[in-house]
């Protein structure tokens, strides 16, 4: 999968770093990501309007338990928000959709528009968008291990990062923001006690969810900063 040669052009980008069996050129990948993000954003905006209609007038809200409200959230908003998330979660669309997610959380718990949602995410056991992106991305990495190599497979130097995934060299922002490159960065920044579990999917998922529910990252920068302290 990986190569030590530097990626220097869009033509060689998918030749050297293809993670799908289909032959997709970078322009198509960028278009695909934009189309995904646009459609998800539009659908989420419609769902927020629907939630306002259902709950803002306190007609249905008082009649439903918190568990029922969460079920409505997961059935409608969450299922749309997470669709194709690994492709658009690192794009500009994610900021807009995260604001919509927080608006839904405020509707569910009945707080004002400028009140913080962080504690309510924790109480509801709902992951903020970027935490959900991290979760989905890491499951993609461990489920597609054949597309990734560890540093020890690339060179024989015995360093403390020898068990990390090998990060290809690239100056292309479309690649750096993509699923493969970001997935490697996110995986390599995991606490060692979690990434050591990647051979056992169920244990890895359990430890990862516990970690993400504890920190509730709002941005990727929060995640990378947390694990560099």
How does this model look, in words?
With 229 residues, the chain is mainly α. The protein folds into two domains: 10-22 and 135-226, no CATH class; 26-126, no CATH class. It contains 13 helices and no strands. The protein has helices spanning 10-17, 26-55, 66-81, 85-88, 93-109, 118-124, 129-143, 151-154, 173-176, 179-188, 192-195, 201-215, 220-226. It is elongated, with a radius of gyration of 19 Å.
Any descriptors?
mainly alpha, elongated, about 60% helix, about 230 residues, disordered N terminus, 13 helices
Question: What is the domain tally?
Answer: 2
Order of helices and strands: HHHHHHHHHHHHH
Query: Which percent range describes the beta-strand content?
Result: under 5%
How many helix segments?
A: 13
Shape estimate: elongated
**Helix proportion range:** 55-70%
The biggest beta sheet is recorded as: none
């Amino acid at each position: 999968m990986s190569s030590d040669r530097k990626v220097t052009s869009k033509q060689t980008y998918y030749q050297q770093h293809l993670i799908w069996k289909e032959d997709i050129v970078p322009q198509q990948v960028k278009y695909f990501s934009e189309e995904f993000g646009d459609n998800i954003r539009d659908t989420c905006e419609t769902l927020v309007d629907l939630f306002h209609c259902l709950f803002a007038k306190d007609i249905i809200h008082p009649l439903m338990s918190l568990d029922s409200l969460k079920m409505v959230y997961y059935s409608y908003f969450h299922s749309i928000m997470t669709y194709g998330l690994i492709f658009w979660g690192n794009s500009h669309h994610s900021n807009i959709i995260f604001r919509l997610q927080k608006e839904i959380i405020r509707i569910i718990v009945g707080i004002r528009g400028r009140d913080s949602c962080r504690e309510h995410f924790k109480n509801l056991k709902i992951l903020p968008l970027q935490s959900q992106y991290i979760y989905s991305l890491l499951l993609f990495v461990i489920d597609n291990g054949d597309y990734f190599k560890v540093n020890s497979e690339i060179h024989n130097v015995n360093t403390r990062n020898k068990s990390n995934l090998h990060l290809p060299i690239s100056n292309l922002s479309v690649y750096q923001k993509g699923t493969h490159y970001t997935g490697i960065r996110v995986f390599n920044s995991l606490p060692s006690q979690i990434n050591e579990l990647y051979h056992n999917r169920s244990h890895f998922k359990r430890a990862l969810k516990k970690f993400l529910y504890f920190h509730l990252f709002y941005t990727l920068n929060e995640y990378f900063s947390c694990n560099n302290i």
